[in-house]
């Protein structure tokens, strides 16, 4: 089982820094059912290729399946696992290149943050649905896809093609994004995980798919097949993905009510409605992420000064691309400002705005740091109006299969009573008046899935 990653970025040997694997060494990593080897077939300034080779032990693989899997006798030992790119390759790739997947590179961080020319070669990818599905899955991510079917037997052409394809992907992609895409997409073509799937598999999918999966046109297909159609898990994944994107999930709405605009769209609409009523001359989106709300503010309101800030540079880059900043006219560019900052530290750039938005941000802050955020936003920055949305934990019982918080990065989620206590206290301490409302479908007992507070300076 083999996969190769090639770049022609100059110097191409910087690939070794990005992968944390030296081009002059052969490195081996023991996996539960196989041995993973990383080596470089070529390493020059013009072109560098890293190869990940898996040597599968059928006996170890059969033992690893345990008692949960039925005994299919010879099929346990004679199968395509040693040769085809499946979940075993994805798991090994995630383990061997775990640091590269995070996008961190201490010695080449600027390069790790940038798209570079990449070529991914997968000699044997199982796909029963044909090359069209491979293109539909990889194409929207910016890859140019070449998928050649592999004959059942070259000596007997009348037998036709097998279900395996030799796949080559080329494109200018950030390496961390490419690795996370492969981690998610390789198993979905085979739909047969080599390990027992538990509830945390949804969290793995959302972490690896952050920034690209929610907006993918085939996200439901990817989620369902990545989870090997495990009962319940794929429905939970689709619901949580729908909440992250501006689209409606036709099969499993994010809310238990009949099909309506997604909760994310409802939040945007609610915030925009407040902004239109205020007619501010300036607004700042604290924790703007990839710029979804900013794009609507720029397009749908006449606010002269629109600013977004986020602690994540990768999210700001996505916002930059989403807003087509490089293609803006000088007048359009003067209207927009993007910068990196953390809401728990005072920053002069936060001051002087008529309105500020914290949409689904506060629940990502560690509770001991909430006091710092309150002082920075309501005390130091002190905008005339603060619009804040956050999940209503009372509503969580209506999400089938949800156990715990709605997102793995949430540090807490407030009930309506807790949110009321917090917002009343903050308003009183910093000279604001606060009104609260719900966003999304209303349950008579549990309220709405999202709660919103609008703070206005007295």
TrEMBL record:
GO terms for biological process: regulatory ncRNA-mediated gene silencing; RNA methylation. InterPro entries: 3'-RNA_MeTfrase_Hen1_bac, Hen1, Hen1_N, Hen1_N_sf, SAM-dependent_MTases_sf. One of its GO terms (molecular function) is metal ion binding. It is an enzyme of class 2 (transferase). Its cofactor is Mg(2+). It catalyses: small RNA 3'-end nucleotide + S-adenosyl-L-methionine = small RNA 3'-end 2'-O-methylnucleotide + S-adenosyl-L-homocysteine + H(+). Keywords: Magnesium, Metal-binding, Methyltransferase, RNA-binding, RNA-mediated gene silencing, S-adenosyl-L-methionine, Transferase. Residues 1-241 form the Hen1 N-terminal domain. Its EC number is 2.1.1.386. It holds the Pfam family Methyltransf_23. Belongs to the methyltransferase superfamily. HEN1 family. This is Small RNA 2'-O-methyltransferase. It comes from Gordonia phthalatica.
């Amino acid at each position: 089982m083999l996969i190769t990653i090639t770049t022609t970025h100059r110097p191409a040997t910087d690939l070794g820094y990005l992968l944390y694997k030296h081009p002059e060494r052969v490195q081996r990593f023991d996996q539960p059912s196989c041995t993973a080897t990383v080596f470089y077939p070529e390493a020059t300034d013009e072109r560098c290729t890293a190869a990940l080779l898996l040597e599968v032990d059928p006996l170890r693989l059969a033992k690893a399946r345990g008692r949960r899997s039925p005994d299919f006798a010879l099929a346990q030992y004679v199968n395509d696992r040693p040769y085809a790119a499946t979940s075993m390759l994805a798991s090994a790739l995630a383990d061997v290149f775990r640091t590269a997947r995070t996008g961190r590179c201490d010695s080449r961080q600027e390069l790790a943050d940038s798209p570079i020319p990449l070529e991914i070669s997968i000699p044997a990818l199982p796909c029963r649905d044909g090359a069209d599905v491979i293109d539909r899955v990889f194409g929207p991510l910016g890859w140019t896809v070449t998928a050649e079917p592999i004959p059942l037997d070259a000596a007997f052409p009348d037998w036709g093609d097998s279900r395996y394809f030799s796949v080559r992907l080329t494109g200018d992609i950030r390496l961390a994004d490419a690795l996370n895409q492969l981690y998610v997409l390789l198993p979905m073509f085979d739909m047969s995980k080599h390990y027992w799937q538990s509830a945390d598999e949804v969290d793995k999918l959302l972490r690896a798919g952050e920034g690209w999966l929610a907006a993918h046109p085939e996200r439901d297909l990817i989620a369902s097949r990545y989870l090997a159609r495990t009962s319940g898990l794929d429905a939970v994944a689709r619901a949580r993905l729908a909440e992250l994107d501006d689209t409606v999930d036709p099969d499993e709405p994010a809310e238990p009510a009949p099909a309506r605009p997604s909760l994310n769209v409802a939040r945007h609409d609610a915030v925009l409605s407040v902004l239109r009523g205020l007619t501010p001359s300036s607004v700042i989106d604290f924790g703007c992420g990839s710029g979804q709300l900013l794009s609507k503010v720029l397009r749908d309101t006449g606010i002269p000064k629109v600013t977004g800030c986020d602690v994540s540079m990768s999210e700001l880059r996505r916002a930059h691309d989403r807003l087509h900043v490089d293609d803006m006219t000088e007048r359009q560019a003067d209207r927009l400002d993007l910068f990196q900052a953390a809401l728990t530290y005072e920053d002069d750039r936060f001051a002087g705005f008529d309105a500020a938005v914290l949409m689904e941000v506060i629940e990502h802050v560690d509770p001991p740091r909430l006091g710092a955020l309150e002082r920075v936003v309501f005390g130091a920055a002190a905008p005339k109006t603060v619009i804040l949305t956050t999940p209503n934990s009372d509503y969580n019982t209506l999400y089938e299969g949800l156990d715990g918080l709605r997102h793995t990065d949430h540090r807490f989620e407030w009930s309506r009573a807790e949110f009321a206590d917090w917002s009343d206290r903050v308003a009183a301490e910093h000279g604001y008046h606060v009104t609260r409302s719900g966003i999304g479908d209303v349950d008579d007992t549990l309220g709405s899935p999202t709660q919103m507070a609008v703070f206005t300076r007295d």
